[in-house]
Write a structure and sequence with these properties.
By secondary structure, this protein is α/β, with parallel strands linked by helices. It has helices spanning about 10-20, 35-45, 60-75, 85-95, 110-115, 120-130, 145-155, 175-180, 185-195, 200-205, 210-220, 230-240, 240-255, 260-265, 270-280, 310-315, 320-325, 330-335, 340-360, 415-425, 445-450, 465-470, and strands spanning about 25-30, 50-55, 100-105, 135-140, 165-170, 285-290, 300-305, 370-380, 385-395, 400-405, 435-440, 460. It folds into 3 domains: about 10-170, Rossmann fold (3-Layer(aba) Sandwich); about 175-345, Arc Repressor Mutant, subunit A (Orthogonal Bundle), CATH 1.10.10.10; about 360-470, Trna Endonuclease, Chain: A, domain 1, CATH 3.40.1350. Helices cover about 45% and strands about 15% of the residues. It is globular, with a radius of gyration of 25 Å.
Length: about 475
Amino acid sequence: MGKFIGRRQELSALQDLYDRDGFQMAVVYGRRRVGKSTLLREFARNKTTIYYTAVRSSSEWNLHALGKCVKEVLLPELSNMDFPSYEELFDFVGKQAKEKRILFVLDEFPYLAEQDASLLSRLQKAIDTDWQDGQLFLVLSGSSISFMEDEVLSEKSPLFGRRTCQLKIKPFNFWEAGEFVPSYNPEEKAICYGVTGGIAKYLSFLDDSRSLDENIQRLFFRTSGYLYEEPQNLLSQEFRQVSTYNDIISAVASGRTRLNQIADLTHMNPSKVSHATSNLIMTGILRKDYAITDERNKQKVRYVLSDHMFRFWYQFVAPNVAMIEVNRGDECYEHIVKPRIPDFMGDVFEEMCRYYTIAKGTFPDFPCLITRIGKWWGTNPMKREETDIDVVGLDSIRKTAMIGECKFKNEVLDKKIFDALQERQGLIDHHYRVVGYLLFSKSGFSDWILEHSKDESIYPISLSKMYDER
């Protein structure tokens, strides 16, 4: 078993709950491959644990398999006994946990509940009548975000009000992702984060004893690679009309960021596109972006791929399937993909810089207490052209702001970039006063930037510094 990485806050929250007296119920959910099961298995170490991962099968099959897990942990001498119903199984587990803390994990819980519409009510009854006075720690975990939020956590659920903790597991941030490839330099770590989207399963396949190029070629550009067909596999697990979702993601990956643009390119009814994009947002593949300080402007809404791995796949793998299928994937990567990775990393680097800013946005690092982070885009009335500001950090209390520019290029960031950023300071909400300029660069800064950084409220932050300052 490999080294367990990250998830310190999640482990701490679960352990804190475990150490409390009485019945506890945690709901753990998040998109597929994000690392929920790895987290729960790490948490379960050295604990009396019933751990069952449900499968897409009949209710009877799951009941039998769950019963087998229960007996192996609590009463191995009765291995031939079957539980005729969930009620009897829950009753048995509750009696064993009257005085002793038992961890009861139902992983991929939606597979259980979808086969038995009454299971949620049966769990409710067990919690309210048998488990409430005992020491059972119940964990319900699932990859279907819509099911976990609508059927388990919402007010309409029979289990509403029973949970004592809920954790939505998100992809790793760029710092945590870097721990999977400790021998890589900051640029290589950033690219690993970009092409995997911070998803734990994908990061676990990276081998930092090999070169970055080898890893990307092996995972994406060979028919045997784990990520070669991964987006299609995920879509087929989540949706019935895979082609519809595939077309919408392709449109967004090509730069169509508005609903009408997506509908025009895909030749779909706008209402159908709207429904599908809502589902893609729910699964964490898409997100809606709003221009910070201008969120009420409905003209400033963008649909973007929040999953960087999907964006990488649709930009570079999908168009080159023919070459990969005839074993020319390495050549495709070397001559077509690799030269374009800096451009691909532009959006990834911006997101990293915004995360860094909100994580570090306090005194004495910055001249204001940053409470909100985002990006601004729109028209510059002075120049009558479209423009944007990569990083906008707002101090909502003092009405001050810091704005920033991000460059993932093989050239130093110079005075020209700072001057252009300074010119755009008046574009965000006039209620905010700009008190500092954040300059993020992969390749460092010109002498002028370094010399004037203190006098001009410039904060030059290199990629190396971003990784060093975790």
